[in-house]
Write a structure and sequence with these properties.
534 residues; alpha/beta; Immunoglobulin-like; Rossmann fold; seven-stranded mixed beta sheet; five-stranded mixed beta sheet
């Protein structure tokens, strides 16, 4: 509306100016800034003299959106300032301003000629996926600027956090990760599948960019779309830091050392580390190693670490509160509580909680087709921020059958670790068709009649026969005794510590449980981080 008023005002001023000229010149027509194609010939011209040049009263600004939405030209009175039009739009890109001769145009500049301004675009688009039960496709545009690393590493920078988040959630172990960096101007980006989809394996990407007086190295650890390497999450171990995360960290650390030694660069480095979920835990341990190592790859103040929805992988006594390691946490996401502090685990660095109690409104504003299940309060849980704590406390608090308790780290290690690693490896190594059949069947049963699911988990034998039927139908080899032992242990857990979880299979608790799980999805974290202010 403001732009429209200014245009009308300028048009009136233009009309008055022309009217004044017409009165002063009688019936003689005025020429425009380019001259009239058929100007009248006066006496001076007939005598070979140049005709008088009428003063230019306005100029035209044309807008080249460079593939973006159309922006109409505007007319501006001579020596006045133009009003910037509404920003154009372009899929997968962020508008970076209007440029004149490769320089950002300042709209406070008085207009003295006809000009054409060209839109500059930056950034790259990343798919954020959806949430449970919603197939909506969600994308976000991420931007990189060298200036992010001009600030001290111990000062939280939301813009840098957004870039690092994009690097994290784009890393699914494919070229999607390297494309993210090259689209943003990095000279080189390489994905390292040194242990492709294997138990204890890890994918990571190393990208580099030469900046005026240093080389920037960004390490992004895979945190989405992974397969059998996820089994390492369950290898907590019975001593020292989280065993599975530590093994993955060593792979990335050695890869980073080898990379730096191979490029033979004698200048200074700045190293940025990032990861999401499992990748966040590995990046957190990697930051700890870089900051503690004696033979440093770079000075501590040149390390920038941003991790997202990060599990705990360091022993509390080993977790230093570094001021340049930021763990961006959604406190409603249960993954941020695992491995439990009750087992002695923590994260190094500083936690930044981005949860927002207006999350439902924020999600709707981002995409009106995306909706989280509604949280329903109960006498036990009145605030969704207490739900994940309640569930974890219920599991750890079970004390009845010694072979099924997981109160301490040793309890988990002795009673569950091998079983969970076996089950995870089994399912992640199944053909996708077989795994999909199992998931669709069990979800269908749960939706139609939850008690049909309870029948399946009534005993180890019933669960064993249920899974065995799918494996046999698709001719998948397995060791019967291993599968039966795993089925017995899973049923023992469900009927023991997991009894509390059964209550969440029935509405309204079921919606609360799905909502809590949805809180770990990338699109939710993107919306929360976008709206975070510290």
């Amino acid at each position: 509306m403001k732009n429209k008023f200014i245009k009308i005002l300028l048009s009136c001023f233009f009309a008055l100016t022309i009217g004044t000229l017409l009165v002063s010149c009688g019936n003689e027509e005025n020429s425009n800034d380019k001259g009239n194609e058929n100007p009248p010939i006066d006496d001076k011209e007939s005598k070979g003299q140049e005709p008088p040049v009428e003063p230019v009263s306005s100029y035209t600004i044309r807008f080249d959106s460079d593939g973006g939405s159309d922006v109409k030209s505007i007319s501006v009175t001579k020596n006045t300032r133009a009003t910037a039009p509404a920003d154009p739009k372009k899929d997968g890109k962020a508008f970076a301003g209007w440029y004149l001769n490769d320089q950002l145009f300042n709209f406070d500049t008085p207009i003295t000629d006809n000009i054409t301004l060209k839109a500059k675009w930056e950034g790259t688009s990343v798919s954020l996926g959806g949430i449970i039960g919603n197939s909506t496709s969600n994308n976000a545009t991420f931007i990189y600027r060298d200036s992010y690393f001009e600030n001290a590493s111990n000062v939280f920078n939301k813009d840098l956090a957004m870039f690092m988040f994009g690097a994290s959630v784009s890393n699914d172990g494919t070229d999607k990760s390297s494309t993210y960096f090259t689209d943003l101007g990095f000279e080189k980006a390489t994905v390292y599948p040194k242990a492709k989809d294997e138990y204890q394996g890890i994918y990571y990407t190393i990208a580099e960019k030469n900046i005026t007086d240093y080389k920037l190295i960004v390490v992004s650890v895979r945190g989405v779309g992974y397969g059998a390497e996820w089994s390492g999450n369950f290898e907590v171990g019975n001593a020292n830091n989280h065993t599975g995360f530590t093994k993955a960290k060593e792979i990335v650390l050695n890869g980073l050392k080898n990379y730096i030694s191979s490029i033979n660069y004698s200048g200074n480095y700045k190293i940025a580390l990032t990861g999401y979920s499992r990748g966040g835990a590995v990046a957190n341990l990697l930051a700890d190693s870089l900051l503690k190592m004696e033979d440093k790859l770079t000075a501590n103040e040149n390390v920038y670490a941003y991790t997202f929805n990060t599990p705990k992988g360091l022993l509390k006594e080993n977790a230093v509160a570094y001021d340049n390691v930021f763990n961006i946490i959604n406190e409603v996401d249960i993954i941020s509580l695992i491995a439990p502090k009750e087992y002695g685990f923590a994260r190094c660095g500083r936690d930044i909680n981005i949860y927002n109690d207006k999350i439902d409104d924020l999600i709707h504003a981002y995409n009106d087709k995306l909706q989280l299940p509604t949280f329903t309060a109960s006498d036990t849980i009145t605030d969704e921020r207490e739900l994940n704590k309640f569930i974890l406390k219920s599991l750890i608090g079970y004390t009845y059958e010694p072979e099924y308790v997981l109160t301490t780290r040793n309890d988990y290690y002795n009673n569950y670790q091998n079983t969970l690693i076996y089950v995870s490896n089994l399912f992640f190594n199944l053909p996708s068709e077989t795994l999909n059949k199992i998931v669709v069947d069990i979800m269908g049963k749960a939706k139609a009649d939850v008690f049909s699911v309870i029948t399946i988990i009534a005993s180890g034998d019933s669960l064993y026969n249920y899974i065995k039927g799918f494996l046999d139908a698709d001719n998948i080899r397995y060791v019967e005794s291993d599968l039966l032992n795993a089925a017995n242990k899973v049923v023992g857990f469900i009927q023991g510590p997991g009894t509390y979880l059964l209550a969440f299979a029935i509405e309204p608790n079921r919606s609360n449980l799905i909502r809590m799980i949805d809180m770990h999805f990338a699109v939710v974290d993107y919306v929360l981080l976008s709206n975070y202010s510290n």
